[in-house]
Specification:
Pfam families: Sel1. This is 11884_t:CDS:1. The protein is mostly helical. Helix content is 73%, strand content 0%.
Length: 85
């Protein structure tokens, strides 16, 4: 219950733990659709943080932001935009 509360409050690690639980059936029944929902939420939140980091000229943030755009994690896939990072 504590992990769910933390995930709903925006804790990225907790969001991934919930997704993993649904993916592997740990503490709940296996539910790939629910796992995907949680994994996507975590990816979207991580994307936002990398975007902020990139805007503040953090080289690692720029690299990861570009990688997320290139792979379409947490955002729409855009190879041309990714190359700019």
């Amino acid at each position: 219950m504590g992990c769910l509360k933390s995930a709903l409050a925006g804790n990225i690690n907790a969001v991934n733990i919930i997704g993993y639980g649904y993916d592997k059936g740990i503490g709940v029944g296996v539910d790939r659709k629910e796992a995907f929902k949680w994994y996507f939420e975590g990816s979207s939140e991580t994307f936002k943080w990398y975007e902020k980091s990139a805007e503040n000229e953090c080289v690692y943030g720029q690299y990861m932001h570009g990688e997320y755009i290139y792979e379409g994690r947490g955002t729409c896939k855009d190879i041309i935009k990714a190359i700019c990072y």
